[in-house]
Amino acid sequence: MSTYSLAIHGGAGTITRNSLTAEKEQHYRDALLEALVAGESILKSGGSALDAVMQAVMSLEDCPLFNAGRGSVFTATGQHEMDASIMRGDTLDAGAVAGVKGIKNPVVLARAVMEQSEHVMLSGLGAETFAKETGITFESEKYFYTEQRFQQLQEAIRGGKVQLDHTLSENKKFGTVGAVAKDQQGNLAAATSTGGMTNKKFNRIGDSPIIGAGTYANNKTCAVSCTGHGEFFIRAVVAYDISCLMEYKGLSLKKPAELWFGINW
User: Fold this and answer.
1) What CATH number is given to the structural domain containing 154?
2) Conformation bin of residue 38: beta by default, left when phi > 0, alpha when psi is -120 to 50
């Protein structure tokens, strides 16, 4: 039997124990498991890595616990501006959207950009117009509202700062979601989705929709979906650099991860 693999993330960092009840922890675990099952069911039946990462990320976007889709954080103007991208490792085709509003599943729109346009990235109103033309599902502002996110905005406003997704000042939980997969045919894919930073201004865009920074997939090397402070990933072109270290220096995935993130495998 051919093998397959899938990895997902609901955001970097940790939630401190004093702010995470047993019930809340179970909710997070259940939501992550649901996303895994959504993606694995496709891979197990012989489906593509591309379909698997999209379904896994859609599941996370639909859950208000994560800073993507329904659970996206508020901007300084009290709105939600979402970014997403998707890439397939066999052809290096990719699609991305940035600063979109009202899109239920930004990762689906990113895939539509990849497959139904001649472009890689669309942003703002243009991306939303394209979404309407291609039948992408929209939701009202009410759908994206969560009290927890609203209170995070108030905290950020009081502190006069832009902040990553977290509920308390000492609680570091970065909510960008993503998935990487390898299907039974040996093809790789990656997808990433985020609501960005709480209280962000000027239509700030992070690394998530930028191919090579927050998302990358290449059958020759690996599939990468990043989470954390996007500006750093953009400056260092992290996702692509990991792939390059593997392709041009012949390193295994383990070594670039150790170099970049200090991971001791």
Assistant:
1) 3.60.20.30
2) alpha
The catalytic residue among 176, 215, 221, 227 is 176
For 180-205, write each residue's pLDDT tens digit.
999 999 999 999 999 999 899 999 99
Q: Specify the pTM.
A: 0.92
pLDDT given at position 168: 47
Q: What are the pLDDT digits (tens) for 143-155?
A: 999 998 898 889 8
CB 183 within 8 A of CB 3: no
Read off the tokens for 198: 């709480």
- Residue 100's domain spans which residues? 5-261
Sheet holding 188-194, edge to edge: 5-9, 177-182, 188-194, 82-88, 94-100, 121-123
Among this protein's residues, is 21 annotated catalytic?
Answer: no
The DSSP letter of residue 18 is G
Residue 76: pLDDT above 60? Answer: yes
> Is a pLDDT exceeding 80 seen at residue 170?
no
- Give backbone dihedrals phi and psi of 95, rounded to 5 degrees, phi first: -145, 150
Reported for 244-251, long-range contacts at CB under 8 A and 24+ positions apart, including other chains, are 246/220, 246/221, 246/222, 247/218, 247/220, 247/221
When divided into structural domains, the chain yields a total of 1
CA-CA distance, 177 to 55, in Å (whole number)? 12
Helix-then-strand count for the chain, H and E = 9, 8
CB 97 within 8 A of CB 106: yes
